[in-house]
Amino acid sequence: MSDKKAESKLQFCYLCNGYKPPRAHHCRTCKRCVMKMDHHCPWLNTCCGHLNHGYFVLFVLWVPAGCMACVVILAMTVYRDWLLLPLALFHHSFGYFTSTLIDLFMVMFALGLAVGVTIAVGVLAIYQLLAIGKNQTGIETWIVAKANHWRADTGTEPFVYPYDLGRTANLFQVLTWSGRAIGDGIHWPLREGSGEYDLTVEQIRQKHFKQQTRREFRIVRSYAGQCYPCFSFGFRTAIDTPYPDETRIAVRVGDLVHVTRKSKHWLYGQIELVKTTSPQNGTTSGSYISPRGWFPRLCATEVTGDKRIQRLKQD
């Protein structure tokens, strides 16, 4: 395929000022595009992508295994002291215990931590295995789910994921003996009948649809962008916040925000600052080089009716 045809099927990253290869996404935390990005891990302070996905999966598999070993050892310690308790009470002496009360408290505390980490990281490991069994990243799972949801509503054929090579082959795309990534992160093995840019074209379609259905909100109350607004926007807003690793944006009174996602107490959108021209066709694409993230719903009121029509005419 010629460069021009390829460019028409690739997404352009205005922040990195370059085209993104298939399966790549821009991480706003790392401030760069990541090949085959799965997610940004706040605990490791790095992105999980093509070059380290295998290492990450091995990490989330071995952490629960190690914690389960700790659970067994710590539980045996508690059980041993529990068996000695009747003997100590009968003789009115706690000299039978090999552990002090502080030791026992610390063991119980460590046991609780080990159980908690085993469950939390174990669930993450299961999700990772289910995803790579389909040769999907976390982001691609959402894209495919939205594609099939839209097709179900319109009565069209389900979306065919182009990188599904079969469960065994999918697993070995990520899980290798060395942990090193397979391939160059740009070109990927495809299932029969699929094209190299099928997923990218679907992403572009979804983004166009999102732009068409976005809502405009005018900021009426400033927000500094802190993760937890300390009840200044109400108790429910403070406790029902988005995930801590998701971006918040600071907004000022008078800002216009294009909202594409929302929850009960928060809105997700992009502040309108500067329109840019797409290098693909030389026309204004409606993309904005501006902050994008969550802000409290109480900060804004929706621009509706005549005001929105007037703005569209101005644009």
UniProtKB/TrEMBL annotation:
It catalyses: L-cysteinyl-[protein] + hexadecanoyl-CoA = S-hexadecanoyl-L-cysteinyl-[protein] + CoA. One of its GO terms (cellular component) is membrane. Residues 8-142 form the Palmitoyltransferase DHHC domain. It is found in: Membrane. Keywords: Acyltransferase, Membrane, Transferase, Transmembrane, Transmembrane helix. Pfam families: DHHC. InterPro entries: Palmitoyltrfase_DHHC, PFA4/ZDH16/20/ERF2-like. GO terms for molecular function: protein-cysteine S-palmitoyltransferase activity. Coiled coil: none annotated. It is a multi-pass membrane protein. Its EC number is 2.3.1.225. Its main location: membrane. The chain crosses the membrane at residues 54-75, 104-127. The DHHC domain is required for palmitoyltransferase activity. Belongs to the DHHC palmitoyltransferase family. This is Palmitoyltransferase. It comes from Fasciola hepatica.
